[in-house]
Amino acid sequence: MTNTHMSPSRAGDFAEYYAVTWLWDQGYEVFKNCGCDGPVDLIARAEDGTIILIDVKTYRKSTGSKSVTSFRKTGDRTERQIEMGVQILGFDPRDRKCYFVEHRDETTYSRYRDEQQPQLDLAGSDTGC
């Protein structure tokens, strides 16, 4: 059960730590941003040396909704993140699952995912978050 009384900052920390363990389960080495803000939360390195810059985003309860099941995705990539090739890794606190968000534009990650690592289930995992 997710703690519904967490501050937004604590909820973000919570999501990032789940993301780290999920990425480990996917075979990545993970490095965390030591600052409080910036365009990148995590850097993931695959066994072949491919680097993925990641911004972790959490589903949020919809504004004004009293429904426990009414959640929405938060945040799109900034122009800077798009230029850097940052990938959004979504975290759903309802089931504690992580997934890479598919972006409309071509990115380093999507090329890597589609051409190099088709065996990884990056849309969701029963063994990760």
Q: Number of DSSP strands?
A: 7
**Residues in β-strands, percent:** 15-25%
CATH fold title: Trna Endonuclease, Chain: A, domain 1
Q: Which shape, going by the Cα principal axes?
A: globular
Low-confidence parts: 67-71, 115-129
Domain tally: 1
CATH architecture field: 3-Layer(aba) Sandwich
User: Helices and strands, in N-to-C order?
Assistant: HEEEEEHEEH
By helix and strand content, what is the structural category?
A: alpha+beta
Distance between the termini: 13 Å
Indicate the percent of residues in helices: 10-25%
Supply Rg.
15 Å
Q: What is the CATH C level class, in words?
A: Alpha Beta
Contiguous helical run count: 3
Please tell me the overall pLDDT: 75
Q: What strand order characterises the main sheet?
A: 1-2-3-6-7
Describe the overall structure.
This protein is an alpha+beta fold. The chain has one domain (8-115): Trna Endonuclease, Chain: A, domain 1. It is 25% helix and 23% strand. It has 3 helices and 7 strands. The strands form 2 sheets. The chain has a 5-stranded mixed beta sheet. A two-stranded antiparallel ribbon has the order 4-5. The longest helix is centred in the first third of the chain and has 18 residues, at 8-25. 23% of the residues are buried. Mean pLDDT is 75; it is low at 67-71 and 115-129.
